[in-house]
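User: Show me a protein chain along with its predicted structure.
Assistant: Here is one chain, sequence first, then structure tokens.
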Amino acid sequence: MNDDVRNIVLGLVASGLFTALGWTARTSLWKRRLRRKQAFFGLPDNSESLLVVNRDPATAEPAVHRFDVFSLLELSALIKDCGAHVQVVTQDTAHQGFGERTEFRVGAPRRTGGWWPCCPGCGSTWTRSRDRSGRPSGSARNGT
């Protein structure tokens, strides 16, 4: 009986120890993944972010196009996971500023293309140039 009690106690202690070890490892991996996601998107804890959407041209009042709603849902879940606060505004009321808060623009390139040249490294344009033989060749040139 004494050996049986000892084996049960050792089993409970070992399972409790390895449960705590597994929980600690899982929590540290979860925190590491969260910190990497926050660093990638620029969303530290309690930071401000902005979702800029285009107005639906088919309606007179401010409304979001139905295809953009799915993107807004995904982005809002991502922002909430990072622990940041979100504000949704239309492109007409968005203030342009660098470094104040993380900004996500949702919409087709023809609707949001006007702000690309403002971003460093994003405003590339295609130019037609001629190589040494005189033939035209397309080359990417940074638009900034």
